[in-house]
Amino acid sequence: MEQRDDIIEYSLYNHHSEEEGKKMRKKIWKVTLILSLVTLFEVICGLIFKQGDSFSWHAIKVIFIILTVVKAGYIVLSFMHLGDEKKAFKWIILLPYLIFIFYLIFVGLTEGAAVGMKM
Amino acid sequence: MSGHASNEINANVGWDGKGSPFSVGYGKLMMWFFLVSDALTFGGFLIAYGFTRYSYGGSWPIGEETFDALPFLQGSYPLAYVALMTFILIISSVTMVLAVEAGHRMDRKGVTKWMLATVLGGLIFVGSQAWEWSHFIHGTKFGRVELSDGSVATAKGEFGKIQSFEIVKPGAHYAGIGELITNDNITKEDGDLMHAFQHAAAKRNLSGTAGAMMITLHDGTVARVNKDADQGLQLIVKEAGTLHALSSADDETTRIHEEGGSVALYYEALSKGNVVYGANLHENEYGPQTYGHFFFFVTGFHGFHVTIGIILNIVIFLNVLKGTYHKRGHYEMVEKGGLYWHFVDLVWVFVFTFFYLI
What we know:
The complex is a heterodimer of chains A (119) and B (358). With 119 residues, chain A is an all-alpha fold. Chain A has three helices and no strands. With 358 residues, chain B is α+β, with helices and mostly antiparallel strands. In chain B, the strands form two sheets. Chain B has a five-stranded antiparallel β-sheet. A four-stranded antiparallel β-sheet of chain B has the order 8-2-1-9, with helices on one face. The chains are: A mainly alpha (119), B alpha+beta (358).
């Protein structure tokens, strides 16, 4: 059977009215502002805090990673509209990825530390 | 009923289950699946980078020390350029999502406008990346030196301008003892004074000490280097040797300052040819060789994705101009292109954090 993507019935939520559009644009600009401010904050912190063994650097490193995940969340859920999709679809995309990536991070850090100790 | 279309779907075009799973189109669903796999690829690269960095013994290059240049300007502007690149990519992501939104309202003019802006933003980003690569490859004026005790250090400070070479022993291209070679009369082969100086340093054709360097040019000409003194030359020790300990980024007193003899040490290394300028696939001045490999590979792979995204966006833009999607009754293709484009932005957010900030 031919599978085509140029048929409107496939994408049921593909249209919205002028009014809904206004609301969405407002949200888009809000997310833009958040992403820009977070990036600016990161750059300023990067300049103030120098890498080293100090507590402040370790704290800022964790903050950088959290802020990166926050930015990623805004991009995926808002710009890519994954937050507006059906719940099952959202988790089918997110869950397998998160499981694999957390596993990989765990392996990378554990093994990296072990290799580092040997060198 | 979740997972099923609420209105009738033409049986000739439905999925095999006769419905549209998750109420998304086939193409959009497949784009998402592709993006998950591509995100795993990038995730693998970045985790491999983290692994290598975590297991590395010496001192890893630091973002704000490595990336502190701006086009057309002298001096140090840490992170300014990458922050600008990040901002450009975020803005082009915004124009993309505005194009998608306009498509949902069947606003053809709006889609045209925002798609064009997105393509332009992408081109500016790739252009910026090209400049950054070029700067990374050509390197700084000082380069990285290996000191006499075996330690390796990068140099910071203001490089004193090279005014001229004063001919001591004429060669094939330059005659006249005592005459000056400047940027105006230097041969094409030598390029300019700075280029000739770095080339000679790397080829062990420099000798002497800070104020009195002698250079041997391509053609065998020997000349005295007339160079202004460097200002505030500091050596940041990246690999410890027998005499110098590793410098720590958060404590500038661990660097070798002028009072500690940085000038003599630097020019001693230079006259021995123990210097690396810029980066290539065999060596780089910023740090361990794997760092160079990861930089080229990960930012290159991302730049490749951006380039593909620009091409896709141009194709979509042309179809919008032709009215293909308007006739079709929906702009889902803009949405699919948009998903890919946002993904490119998403990857950059992570590259920015792990390559430049941390």
